[in-house]
Every structure is written in structure tokens, then in C-alpha cells.
């Protein structure tokens, strides 16, 4: 019996035909993310991958798809209802409150990377386990922070050299704005009710704003002329939104105001945004987020506002591969040792050990049949250099060291072999930093 991975999951592998699943590419993305987070002074937070189900129903909202339809829920052995986290924000608010982090900073700036779980219909760009990079900022409501996280997200894509992206932005207003708008929207939609999709009919009562971003073609037609939420913003929400747009314009950040952008989670108010790419097919959203003014309080925390976003790492890597962006070369092994003969093999085992102890990434070929084959294999595994050690060379105390990229070859003597290789490695690291 051969086992197969459950539907909607994938493996991240050291080598794979599916380029976006190659682990070294994930490492590169994670490295860029971590440096970016340091540059903006965000500190890492790690929360467990499952929580009590109630946290998500209260935090993310029962009318959202990810809670209503897609939660991976199970009973633990004591029959407590638990769920794999579908997103990061609710858990981070829980951790913030539970660990009394409030006193530690004026503004709390967190970042996170990790797997999220949604029981979705599997398709390209939609997985049952996906990975997010996200940030959350907790503090006073502040338009400059909204600006900062949008800038951070766009800077990530810039550092990754991604092109043709679009920033969509909207305001869903505060509670008062939304109540007024809801009434106007329901009034507009009522005559079309029977023509709405089944999903939208359900949302008519529970969360009519979500009808605005329905993917159903008929729904799209119906909402085309719906009133715009932007005309229902309260004074405070309008000023906040206008100030943010003014900052973006000043920074020459291009954006498109899309009054139909409402996002699928219930906790948002005021600003919401998304970065989309036409190169991604149906699942075009690379990342999105917004402000949440009442989530912390609803979960029993202080009356502070939060703002954040999350982006899908699978979709980012898929787009990077599609747009053929730069990925650094894997820089190990630096030395691939090819021992020719039994005496050479024993010597090479100890040399390998010593180089590794000197922090030089080293591999040894333990099954050499022919030199040509060993050299071809070294190229295949992307070794930077090979060191050929034969019984004869051992006697002469001279070994050939070959750079597989430049094809340069030189002789290294036994007494200075470690020092020479270490010097070369340091130089190499400087160039490939
Ligand atoms: P979200 O829009 O649900 O937001 O997810 C963020 C991103 O995760 C999406 O834009 C998409 O790239 C990726 N994603 C979501 N579901 C899947 C899936 N099934 N397969 C692959 N990728 C997926 C949130 O989760 C919010 N917590 C973001 C946030 C943080 N808002 C405020 N703070």
C-alpha cells in the first residue's frame, strides 16, 4: 500500500520539478522577510497551531467563510473543541492579552511566519495547509501605522523583484458607518434577492457586505450599481481614510480605491487593502489586511486598535517562479571531496570532518566508481568546488582543487590545505552575502 498526501496539501522538498516547492527557495523568501521585519522593527511572535475553537468563532467571526465553512475542528481526548488555526490575528490577540504584553511597549509590532489551515476546495493557489507571513500592530489608532504596514508589504514585493502588482484599498468604516451602509445596501439588493446566488442569499441576513465581493458572475452584475460604502463613512472614518490616501500619494505609492473590497473576515473596520496580481489566475490575492478596532476588546483585552496584514507564501513563490525573478544559488556544499582509492577515502573522511568543524560546508563522495561520474554528480548537486584526493596525490602531498563554476583548477599542498580552503570560503561568502 502506497500512502498519498491528503488532498490540498503539498511537500516542501530539497529538490523537486515543481520549483516553488523547493526548500532553498522558501529559505530565501524567509530570509528576505526576516531582514525586512528587522528593518521596520517588527519582532517575531509564535503562537500554537491550534487553539480553542471559540477563539476563532469569536475573533474571526461566525459569518466568515473561514470559520463557518472551513475550520478544521476536532475534539481532544477530554472532549474539548479545538481548531487548527485558519489565520494568525486572533491567536496573536489572545497571546497579547494572556501574556500581559500591554505594559512592555508604547506600540506593539509583531511579525509571524507559519502554517494556517482551511478546509477549502483544493485548487491552484488554494491549499488546506498554506503558509502566511503577517504583521500585526497594536496601539493607538494611527494613520501613519496603516501607511507603514502597506509600505512594508509593498517593500517585500519590491525586494523580491516582483512586478505588475496592484494595491487595492477601501474603507469599511466604523460600526456606525457600516450600519447606515448596510441598510442602504439591503434596500438596493432586496428587489434582486431571488436572483442572488445561494451563498449571497445566506449572507443577505448575516453579512450583506460580503455580497459585494462575491465571485458569482450574476452577483457581480447585480452589485455593479450598488451604493458605495465610501458615501456612508462617518466623519472620523472619512478623515482617517483621506489622510491615508494623502500619505500614499505623497510617497508616490500607486493604489486603486475599490469600494467593493470588503475582505472575508469579520473583524475589520476602517481601512482594508489587498495586493493582487493578474499573473496568478483565479486566486489573485497575494496578501491583504486592514484595521480592526474592536477585536482586542471583544476578546477581553484593552480598548486598543490593531492593524495588520498577511500574505500567502505559496502564492508569492509561485509568482516569483512565474516572473523568473532572481533566486540566490544554493551555496553548499562548498567543497565536494572525491577520494580515489581506499587510503584516500580514510584520509578524506577525517579531512571532511575537520573542514566541517571549521564551518566549511563539505560533502564527501563515499561511493566513487569513476572520476568523471563523481564530477558530474558534484555539478548536479550544485557543489561550488571539488577536491580530488587520490592515493598518488596523498603520497605527493598535493591535491587538485577545482572551481566548478569557473573551471579553474589549482594544486593545494597537504600542509596548507585547510587554511587555503578556509580563505577561499571566506572570500566566497563575502561575494555571496
Ligand atoms: P486572508 O486574506 O484570509 O487574511 O489571508 C491572507 C493571505 O493568505 C491571502 O491573501 C492569500 O495570499 C493567502 N491564503 C489564504 N487562504 C489561502 C489558501 N487556502 N491557500 C493558499 N493561500 C491562502 C488573513 O488571514 C488575515 N488574518 C490577514 C490580517 C492580518 N488582517 C489583519 N491582520
Description:
The chain is an alpha+beta fold and 433 residues long. The protein has two domains: 19-174 and 234-322, BirA Bifunctional Protein, domain 2 (2-Layer Sandwich); 335-431, Anticodon-binding domain (Rossmann fold), CATH 3.40.50.800. Helices cover 38% and strands 21% of the residues. The chain has 15 helices and 16 strands. The protein has helices at residues 23-39, 53-59, 65-68, 89-98, 143-159, 175-189, 198-206, 217-223, 235-250, 295-298, 313-322, 342-357, 371-380, 391-396, 417-432, and strands at 43-44, 50-52, 73-75, 81-84, 108-117, 129-139, 165-171, 256-257, 271-277, 285-292, 305-312, 335-340, 362-364, 385-390, 398-403, 409-413. It has an eight-stranded mixed β-sheet. It has a five-stranded mixed β-sheet with strand order 13-12-14-15-16, sandwiched between helices. Strands 2-4-3 form a three-stranded antiparallel β-sheet. The radius of gyration is 27 Å and the shape is elongated. 35% of the residues are buried. The mean pLDDT is 95. Histidyl-adenosine monophosphate binds next to strand 6, strand 10, strand 11 and helix 11.
Low-confidence stretches: none
**Number of helix segments?**
15
Average pLDDT figure: 95
Radius of gyration: 27 Å
Output the CATH class name of the largest domain: Alpha Beta
Determine the strand fraction and express it as a percent band: 15-25%
The CATH topology of the largest domain is BirA Bifunctional Protein, domain 2
Distance between the termini: 46 Å
Q: Which cofactor or ligand species appear?
A: histidyl-adenosine monophosphate
Determine the structural class based on helices, strands and strand pairing. Answer: alpha+beta
The total beta strand count reads: 16
Coarse morphology: elongated
Largest sheet geometry:
8 strands, mixed
Q: Helix coverage percent of residues?
A: 25-40%
> Could you give the order of strands across the largest sheet?
1-5-6-11-10-9-7-8
Q: What does the oligomeric state look like here?
A: single chain
CATH homology group of the largest domain: Bira Bifunctional Protein, Domain 2
The count of domains is 2
Q: If classified by CATH, what would the architecture of the largest domain be? A: 2-Layer Sandwich
Amino acid at each position: 500500500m502506497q500512502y498519498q498526501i491528503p488532498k490540498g496539501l503539498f511537500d516542501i522538498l530539497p529538490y523537486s520539478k515543481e520549483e516553488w516547492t523547493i526548500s532553498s527557495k522558501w529559505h530565501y523568501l524567509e530570509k528576505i522577510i526576516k531582514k525586512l521585519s528587522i528593518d521596520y522593527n517588527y519582532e517575531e511572535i509564535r503562537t500554537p497551531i491550534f487553539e480553542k475553537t471559540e477563539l476563532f468563532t469569536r475573533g474571526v467571526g461566525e459569518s466568515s467563510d473561514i470559520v463557518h465553512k472551513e475550520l478544521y475542528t476536532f475534539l481532544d481526548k477530554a472532549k474539548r473543541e479545538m481548531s487548527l488555526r485558519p489565520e494568525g490575528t486572533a491567536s496573536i490577540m489572545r497571546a497579547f492579552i494572556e501574556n500581559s504584553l500591554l505594559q512592555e511597549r508604547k506600540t506593539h509590532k509583531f511579525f509571524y511566519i507559519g502554517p494556517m489551515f482551511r478546509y477549502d476546495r483544493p485548487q491552484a493557489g488554494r491549499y488546506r495547509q498554506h503558509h502566511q507571513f503577517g504583521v500585526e500592530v497594536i496601539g493607538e489608532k494611527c494613520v501613519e501605522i496603516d501607511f507603514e504596514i502597506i509600505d512594508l508589504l509593498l517593500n517585500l514585493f519590491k525586494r523580491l523583484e516582483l512586478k505588475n502588482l496592484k494595491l487595492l484599498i477601501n474603507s469599511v468604516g466604523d460600526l456606525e458607518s457600516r450600519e447606515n451602509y448596510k441598510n442602504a445596501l439591503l434596500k438596493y439588493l432586496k428587489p434582486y434577492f431571488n436572483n442572488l446566488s445561494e451563498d449571497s442569499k445566506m449572507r443577505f441576513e448575516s453579512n450583506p457586505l460580503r455580497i459585494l465581493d462575491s465571485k458569482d458572475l450574476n452577483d457581480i452584475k447585480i452589485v455593479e450599481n450598488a451604493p458605495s460604502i465610501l458615501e456612508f463613512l462617518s466623519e472620523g472614518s472619512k478623515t482617517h481614510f483621506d489622510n491615508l490616501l494623502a500619505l500614499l500619494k505623497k510617497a508616490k505609492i500607486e493604489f486603486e480605491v475599490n469600494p467593493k473590497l470588503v475582505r472575508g473576515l469579520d473583524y475589520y473596520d476602517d481601512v482594508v487593502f489587498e495586493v493582487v496580481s493578474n499573473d496568478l489566475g483565479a486566486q489573485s490575492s497575494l496578501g491583504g489586511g486592514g484595521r480592526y478596532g474592536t477585536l482586542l476588546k471583544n476578546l477581553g483585552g484593552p480598548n486598543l486598535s490593531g492593524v495588520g496584514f498577511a500574505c500567502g507564501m505559496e502564492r508569492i513563490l509561485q509568482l516569483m517562479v512565474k516572473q523568473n525573478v532572481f533566486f540566490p544559488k544554493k551555496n553548499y556544499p562548498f567543497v565536494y571531496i572525491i577520494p580515489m582509492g581506499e587510503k584516500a577515502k580514510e584520509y578524506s573522511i577525517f579531512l571532511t570532518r575537520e573542514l566541517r568543524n571549521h564551518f566549511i560546508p563539505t560533502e564527501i563522495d563515499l561511493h566513487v566508481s569513476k572520476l568523471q561520474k563523481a564530477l558530474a554528480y558534484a555539478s548536479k548537486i550544485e557543489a561550488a568546488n571539488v577536491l580530488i584526493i587520490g592515493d598518488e596525490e596523498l603520497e605527493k602531498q598535493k591535491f587538485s582543487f577545482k572551481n566548478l563554476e569557473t573551471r579553474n583548477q589549482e594544486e593545494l599542498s597537504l600542509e596548507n590545505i585547510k587554511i587555503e580552503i578556509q580563505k577561499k570560503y571566506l572570500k566566497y561568502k563575502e561575494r555571496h552575502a
